[in-house]
Amino acid sequence: MRKILVVNPKGGSGKSTLSTHLASWFAWQEARVMLGDLDKQHSSHHWLDLRPETLPRIERWDIGADQIARPPKGCQVAILDTPACFGSAKLKKVLKIVDHVVVPLLPSAFDLWAIADFFDELAEMKAVRRDEVQVGAVGMRINSRTQSAQQLPEFLHKFDIPLITTIRDTQLYNQTIQRGMTLFDLPHSKTQRDREEWQPLIDWIMKR
Ligand SMILES: Nc1ncnc2c1ncn2[C@@H]1O[C@H](COP(=O)(O)OP(=O)(O)OP(=O)(O)O)[C@@H](O)[C@H]1O
Ligand SMILES: [Mg+2]
């Protein structure tokens, strides 16, 4: 079973977009996927409620911040979306039940300042020190021609966190999310370029 935590204490960094896209990608591979949502706004679970029944099924993982427990038996991929301002006590608890931590990151100064403390905190966590979880970052809404996007790998290098991939800024994300879908639910011909951007993240998750 693969258990993936999607976390960044900064609001609007792309956690729910990343969580729902991973869930949908694995669902298309015919895996039994469960999507948990610790956010009181329940963005990922709202999305799940809208998901058309004709699309590959993603199950709701009912996990609450006060009842952190492993995903049910039989689940092959569990993805956990988290809220902004996710505190250390909760982080410590969830790190015990996951094997991958994915941090979506916007390439703005405000976002990078905010994440620096979080990366320091993460590095102190037992599960990370013992290499029980893999931590990787994903650049979100990236325009590769901008200077801020080019600074991202250098920034992450300071924390020894790999930049797994970057995802471009496109309205396709918002357009599909509001219909309970993701880019992976659209025809390949329309999304080839975007699928290629996601592939390194999938490979990284599958590697271990
Ligand atoms: N690659 C992208 N291109 C364009 N828009 C994007 C992209 N990724 C995310 N967005 C948009 O950015 C906004 C914030 O994304 P999202 O809700 O996934 O962030 P979040 O970290 O879950 O936010 P919160 O902290 O409030 O839970 C959404 O409107 C989403 O559609
Ligand atoms: Mg969210």
Could you state the oligomeric state of the chains shown?
Answer: single chain
- Categorize the overall geometry: globular
Distance from N terminus to C terminus (CA atoms, Å) equals 10 Å
**Got a strand count?**
7
Which kinds of small molecule does this entry bind, naming each only once? adenosine-5'-triphosphate, magnesium ion
CATH architecture type:
3-Layer(aba) Sandwich
Query: Helix/strand-derived class?
Result: alpha/beta
Can you tell me the CATH class? Alpha Beta
Strand order of the largest sheet: 3-2-4-1-5-6-7
| Total discrete domains | 1
CATH 4th-level superfamily = P-loop containing nucleotide triphosphate hydrolases
CATH fold group = Rossmann fold
What is the helical fraction, as a range of percent? Answer: 40-55%
Unreliable sequence segments? none
Q: Sheet bearing the most strands, described?
A: 7 strands, parallel
Which value, in Å, is the CA radius of gyration?
16 Å
Strand content: 15-25%
Count of helical segments? 8
SSE order: EHEHEEHEHHEHEHH
Q: What layout of secondary structure does this protein have?
A:
Elements: E1 2-6, H1 15-28, E2 33-37, H2 43-50, E3 59-61, E4 77-81, H3 88-95, E5 100-105, H4 109-124, H5 126-129, E6 134-142, H6 147-157, E7 163-168, H7 172-177, H8 188-207
Helix pairs in contact: 1-2
The site of adenosine-5'-triphosphate has 19 residues, from α1, β6 and α7.
